[in-house]
Design a protein that fits this description.
The chain is mainly beta and 176 residues long. It has 2 helices and 12 strands. A 7-stranded antiparallel sheet has the order 8-5-10-3-2-1-11, covered by helices on one side. Strands 7-6-9 form a 3-stranded antiparallel sheet, with no helix packed on it. It has a two-stranded antiparallel sheet with strand order 4-12. A hairpin with a 2-residue loop joins strand 1 and strand 2.
Length: 176
């Protein structure tokens, strides 16, 4: 008789649930407007025990975040469009079907350089970006809804609010 193998895996946690995200159909997903872009939280950190979060990013032409850095890894998969990433001062163009990994703590940013919206999936590990976006952004109705037009003064207020909240979420905004 052979002994059954032992495992070092913890038991299943029945409190954790299956997450099935439908970004275009499910009104319960949070859609967040952030200075022209719209981010949909597909899988939140609370769903993964803080291990990761998954965000669907709708970025209009010319859109994208200001230079920043954070204490979590960020993996982008470009689903539609063409995006220029600036990573430690160097630029890289990524097209639909390509992926880009940004190491934790590295200064970076990105911008949609196509004449139509770009769509990216952003996987962050550990989670935290989802909570930051919910804290600083404005809720919008859908994955492709436009955020409120802030104008120059409103954008400056948004950036200051983001800079104030960023440290709590392991983020640093790198604009004066």
């Amino acid at each position: 008789m052979s002994e059954s193998p032992t495992t070092s895996l913890p038991p299943d946690d029945p409190e954790r649930r299956l997450v099935h995200a439908r970004p275009d159909e499910e009104a319960t997903l949070p859609h967040v407007g952030l200075v022209g872009d719209t981010y949909t939280i597909l899988v939140a950190g609370k769903d993964t025990g803080g291990r990761y979060c998954l965000i669907d990013m709708h970025v209009p032409p010319g859109g994208g975040p200001p230079p920043h850095r954070h204490d979590f890894e960020e993996l982008f998969s470009i689903l539609e469009g063409q995006v220029v990433f600036t990573f430690r001062g160097e630029q890289l163009i990524a097209k639909a079907g390509e992926s880009v990994n940004i190491p934790a703590n590295a200064p970076h940013g990105f911008r949609n350089i196509a004449d139509h919206p770009a769509r990216l999936l952003c996987f962050c590990s550990p989670a935290g970006a989802d909570e930051f976006f919910l804290a600083v952004g404005d809720r919008v109705e859908s994955r492709i809804a436009s955020p409120p037009n802030l104008g120059d003064a409103g954008r400056a207020v948004f950036v200051e609010r983001a800079k104030t909240l960023a440290p709590k979420h392991g983020v640093e905004i790198l604009v004066p």
